[in-house]
Amino acid sequence: MNKNNKYAVCQGCHKPMAPHNGCTVSHIYMNGKKYERIKAGATPGFDDDMSETDVCHDCNAGAGQYHHFGCDMERCPCCLHQVISCDCFLE
């Protein structure tokens, strides 16, 4: 956490994880291919009920924004499991 800010700082975009301040990194490389990251509120059957005023409970990304790196809610664009614990190779 940045001592000048009350929010942790994302390792990807280097922005504070403040509410509705989603990550600006739109793509990741997995298994040798480039993939667009899955936005908060866009995973069918998982978080697709987020309203536009909701934020991710872990990284504060708003619906339609990218989760911050390390968020336990971000889904893998390859397997749809959590990025932080899936078996896909994040480069």
3D architecture notes:
With 91 residues, the chain is low in regular secondary structure. The chain has one domain (1-91). The protein has no helices and two strands. Strands 1-2 form a two-stranded antiparallel ribbon. The chain is globular, with a radius of gyration of 13 Å. The mean pLDDT is 89.
- Count of DSSP-assigned helices: 0
Strand content: 5-15%
Shape: globular
Mean pLDDT: 89
Strand order of the largest sheet: 1-2
Order of helices and strands: EE
Number of domains: 1
Radius of gyration: 13 Å
Query: What's the oligomerization state?
Result: single chain
Question: How many strand segments?
Answer: 2
Q: In terms of structural class, how would the helical and strand content be classed?
A: little secondary structure
Low-confidence stretches: none
User: What is the helix content?
Assistant: under 10%
Cα end-to-end separation: 24 Å
- What can be said about the biggest beta sheet? 2 strands, antiparallel
Any descriptors?
91 residues; single chain; little secondary structure; two-stranded antiparallel sheet
